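Record Selenocysteine lyase/Cysteine desulfurase, 443 aa.
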Amino acid sequence: MTLAITPATTTAVPAVVGAELRVPLVTGERVTYANLDHAASAPCLQEVRDAVDELLPWYASVHRGAGFASQVSTRVYEQARDRVRRFVGARASDAVVFTRNTTDSLNLLARSVPRNTAVVLFDSEHHAALLPWRGSNVQRVPAPSSSGAAAAVLDRALAAAPVGPRLVIVTGASNVTGELWPVAELAKVARRHGARIALDAAQLAPHRPVDARELDVDYVAFSGHKIYAPFGAGVLVGRADWLQQAQPYLVGGGATAKVTDHGDRLGVAWSAVPERHEAGSPNVVGVHALASACEILSRHWEQTVAHEQQLLTRLREGLRTVPGFRELSILNDADKVGVVSFTISGFDAGFLAAALSAEYGVGVRDGAFCAHVIVGRLVKKLGSHEERAVRASIGLGTTAEHVDRLVAALRTLVTEGPKWSYTQQDGRWVPENDTRTLPPFLA
Ligand SMILES: Cc1ncc(COP(=O)(O)O)c(C=O)c1O
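=>
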């Protein structure tokens, strides 16, 4: 049976490293890898790799050396703050604190809010945004079923929040459904109630421009590895005052202006932000990669959005032809970035993911995507007992062939079954007698 899907057209987008990667199948063949897991970690952009290559000969200590290469590395590190500031449309007064990833950034923010801050968030958030807030002042609000209803739900929650500092946390795009949250509207509601608002842009920043001033958000957090710069850096951008008043996130060198010996104790004068929260040797390579990715993405939004939306339509049209396919959705009226989570009735998500990899060279994610609360609820609503789904996610490395291969593979698995035998090991499905060999550098 042929699939009634839109023809493949191509839009030139920045190239990724590993586009030609070939992976083994259990049958002994090798095929080009179909990476449909961009939402977890995106491949490195070729231009990001070039930027890193250009820096490496100059790589030296940051903030610590008098040598010329140290000065170059320090300049690269400090300039990256402005490059990131431009990417998210931050205010000139905003602090740009480099971290390891979004999780680190949101934990830093959670440690920095004044003690009695009332925190309000939807229960559909990723664990990185859901969990760092401690104490009784956290209101977890059930996610609304439409973006139209989100503002009213937040309005009610904030009306019930205690007097004092208030902070709303919201994701820009769901890592489960790809749906875009009405951030600007939610920011207006937050303002009406005197609340600040933090944007978890981990899934938004790779796919859409983010403008903190236009959205009127106070904080933006995202990860390098999700914007095609997988070198271990993330960032928190936002209002400096709470960050400045907070105890340093990590203590050690770099966060200290002066340490004095008082015999029985040490006197420590902590640095101002951003250094206050960046103790230890800075990750200049990661930060340079992240800032470079910001600039590369900024130059290609039109092509990127067109490329991803074409492939998303193709993916959803194709998946709807797979018997038993059901797509997870939180906000039934929202636009989406290229993330589709689904169940297929009668099939375990982990089994499907294992077979897609072993027999078709397709990489997807299965499980609850670090969003157990919402995935559990959505999957149950679809009538499944497993609190698990499959997630296919699209990005700059995705081609129409990858999408078509996933759809055709699922149709074959569902209608004809697997060609190989699988077993469960430690709760994961794996092929029996897996013949695939690791690349030589791991041998
Ligand atoms: C929406 C969202 N927020 C936060 C995170 C955490 O990002 P990281 O793992 O880079 O800290 C993720 C990661 O998947 C995410 O999708």
